[in-house]
Design a protein that fits this description.
By secondary structure, the protein is of the alpha/beta class. It has helices at residues 49-63, 79-92, 144-154, 259-269, 290-304, 348-353, 396-412, 514-522, 533-542, and strands spanning 8-11, 29-35, 68-73, 98-104, 108-111, 122-127, 141-143, 160-166, 185-186, 232-236, 245-248, 256-258, 312-314, 342-344, 362-363, 372-375, 380-383, 388-390, 421-426, 433-435, 439-446, 455-461, 467-471, 486-494, 500-509, 547-557. Strand 16 (372-375) and strand 17 form a beta hairpin. Helix 4 crosses helix 5. The longest helix has 17 residues, at 396-412.
Length: 560
């Protein structure tokens, strides 16, 4: 846990500007959805998620009005089938249309033949079903440069493209995991050999470009230094050095999903606290922009993976205001209630405690099927992410407090909105583990879109669910007002036991939060985070788009 002490106000310019843009009234949505689960390879593991991802994305595309939908699965996915489908979509598209190009599966790296470019010294590529690094068939892999060349040749520049790649590029987990409970499946193939792998030559584009490039020496896809496509919004599941993950959602009994896909679908289909606005409609204006979906999936995926995975969205300047799919987004549905989490314990003493009538969990027969594993002898509760989320858990009462906390977090998670204010933990990289005695700083960063003089309430939830107020708590904090384009240093404290995961919650609104703060004060020092959820939802529902919540995680332990 962390000790809460000093607060210092500092200024820093950050932020972005968002407006709306006109769109074509006749625009259509077309989709190419590609997924590979079965790889038929001794060196590439199969995946469970892409099949579920494809079904969900097809359903979402059709809800967005798409009738022109092409789906390619497993063995039907080759270089030729993907290129041919993209070319056909480009020919059918008209100015103002949208093309949704989606891929779910493994990703890998290989040494680039041309080094020193802005792409770096490695090529990211998609190994398809049947890919063999020792006997390469160009039909069984697609390089990032191939996709760029196809999009630049086959799609008119006034046709909008939303490309989503739910796959990882390269890298390793930056925080160790506890093998007693680890349920993430990395979407990374050939990890052991990727740094030495070189790809064989592959064919060039099969079809002529849809445009006449008479005034250019080369087509965009031919150059080593490729300019950004002005009509492309690209969402990647992770940074280049990170893994992308899949896991059963929303609990172990759910279907396995790519976490980027899950967050994207959730943001465009489920309602926020007001019961009307889409979760990803962060300013509540009735549509979702490129910037909003970027901010939304970033916050969701980071939270779902314990800060291990950070999506990356790319587009040219000015594209952030573009409204997705050039139409009103789908009618939001109410969120599906989350089933009770499952817990497993081998120790008989712990098993007896799990039968408590106050239980907010299901008892599972194996660690593989559980959301949490309770190592009673060590007093540790391990989440399916492989993190020890609470220590010194040696009683049913403490276990109830921890589960109350995680249930409340899952209830609030879909409503995270960091467009106007975001909590940041330093000095270590996001998600790194802080050991006892080290210093940790917590800041609240506000953007230019935050109304001058907005109010913030910040509190910490310790690993056992104990609520601790952070801001405002004394006269120096005033009414907790924030300045736009600023950073408020809330805490600089030392890490102390018990270890686990602390969660800092910031609620920001344009109206004073007097009643909420008084209620929060009554919960000080209690394991009562669950009681705070509904009051936070009421604040969000009272002013959609003008109130928000940000949640930051602080991992602590006796080793990094």
């Amino acid at each position: 846990m962390i000790s809460t002490k000093a607060r210092i106000a500092v200024r820093l310019l950050i932020g972005f500007f968002m407006i709306s843009v006109p769109v074509a009234a006749h625009a259509e949505v077309r989709a190419l959805l590609v997924g590979v689960s079965q790889f038929s390879s001794p060196v590439i593991s199969d995946l469970e998620g892409p099949a579920n991802d494809l079904s969900s994305m097809e359903d979402l595309a059709r809800k967005e009005g798409a009738s022109d939908v092409t789906v390619l699965r497993d063995g039907n996915v080759t270089r030729t089938t993907v290129e041919t489908a993209l070319h056909a979509l480009g020919l059918r598209s008209r100015p103002g249309d949208w093309i949704l190009f989606y891929y779910s599966g493994h990703g890998a790296q290989a040494e680039a033949k041309v080094k020193g470019t802005r792409d770096g010294d490695f090529d990211q590529f998609l190994p398809l079903a049947g890919f063999d690094p020792e006997n390469q068939d160009p039909e069984r892999f697609i390089v990032d440069k191939d996709i760029y060349g196809w999009l630049s040749r086959y799609v008119l520049p006034d046709v909008q493209i939303l490309m989503i790649a739910d796959t990882c590029h390269s890298g390793t987990l930056h925080r160790s995991v506890d093998t007693r409970s680890y349920r993430f499946t990395p979407r990374l193939a050939l990890r052991a050999v990727s740094s030495q792998l070189q790809l064989v030559s592959r064919p060039g584009p099969k079809f002529p470009a849809v445009l006449n490039y008479q005034d250019r020496n080369t087509l965009p896809g031919d150059a080593a230094e490729r300019e950004d496509l002005s009509n492309l919004i690209y969402i990647a599941a992770s940074q280049d050095e990170e893994l992308a993950q899949e896991m059963p959602m929303p609990t172990e009994e759910g279907p396995s999903r790519g976490l980027l896909t899950y967050a994207f679908e959730q943001g465009l289909t489920e309602r926020g606290a007001d019961g009307k606005t889409l979760l990803a409609d962060l300013d509540a204006d009735g549509s979702v922009s490129a910037a909003e979906i970027s901010i939304y999936v970033d916050g969701q995926v980071r939270t779902l993976t314990g800060q291990r995975q950070r999506p990356k969205t790319s587009y040219v300047n000015g594209k952030e205001v573009t409204r997705l799919f050039a139409s009103s987004n789908v009618q939001a549905t109410r969120p599906v209630s989350t089933p009770l989490p499952g817990i497993f314990a081998q120790d008989r003493r712990a098993t007896a405690m799990l039968s408590s009538p106050a239980a907010t969990w299901k008892v599972m027969d194996s660690a593989q099927d559980a959301d949490f594993v309770w190592d009673y002898a060590a007093g540790a509760l391990i989440r399916r992410s492989g993190d020890v989320v609470a220590s010194q858990v040696n009683s049913t009462a403490k276990l109830i407090g921890v589960f109350d906390k995680w249930s409340a977090l899952e209830n609030l998670r879909p409503m995270i909105n960091e467009a106007r204010a975001q909590l940041a933990i330093s000095p270590l990289r996001d998600g790194a583990r802080y050991v006892a005695g080290t210093s940790v700083k917590i800041r609240l960063r506000s953007s230019a879109t935050l109304k001058q003089g907005a109010y913030a309430t910040v509190f910490n939830v310790a690993s056992d669910g104990t609520v601790q107020r952070i801001f405002p708590v004394d006269e120096a904090d005033g009414k907790g007002q924030l300045q736009s384009d600023g950073v408020l240093l809330l805490i600089e404290a030392q890490v102390v036991e018990p270890f686990g995961v602390d969660h800092v919650v910031a609620v920001v609104s344009e109206a004073e939060q007097t009643e909420f703060r008084l209620f929060l004060q009554t919960l000080e020092g209690q394991r009562s985070f669950g009681k705070v959820v509904e009051p936070i939802k009421r604040i969000l529902a009272a002013a959609p788009g003008r109130s928000s919540v940000s949640i930051a995680e602080i991992y602590t332990g006796d080793r990094p």
